[in-house]
Amino acid sequence: MAEKVLPAIQGQTPSINYGLNNLRFLTPVSSGSRVRGYFSLKSIIEKAINQCRLTLDVSIEIENQAKPALVTEWLILINL
Questions:
Q1: Cα–Cα dist 46/72, whole Å
Q2: Distance between CA atoms of 45 and 23, rounded to whole angstroms?
Q3: Cα(1)–Cα(18) distance, rounded to whole angstroms?
Q4: Which phi and psi (to 5°) does residue 3 adopt?
Q5: Contact 14/77 with Cβ under 8 angstroms?
Q6: pLDDT (tens digit, 9 = 90+) per residue, 21-34?
Q7: What's the mean pLDDT when you consider all of the chain?
Q8: pLDDT of 50 over the 80 cut
Q9: I want to staple 23 with a disulfide (CB 3.0 to 4.6 A). Which of 38, 46, 69, 72 is the partner?
């Protein structure tokens, strides 16, 4: 899901999944339900020369449901 919405960064080598903060499962997803993901960049922190950590707010929503299925902060380490 994220691969389709996250922009490519010029000169980036493959990124590393650095982890999740505050992962919460709020609503079960029934079989056959349609879901969509929202990803928004919260911060970029330089960790070392040519290395940054991205923090993204992520929400996975279920069609016709008031509450999302999942919310979290996703941490990604990228090397440039």
A1: 21
A2: 21
A3: 17
A4: -60, -30
A5: no
A6: 999 999 999 999 99
A7: 90
A8: yes
A9: 72
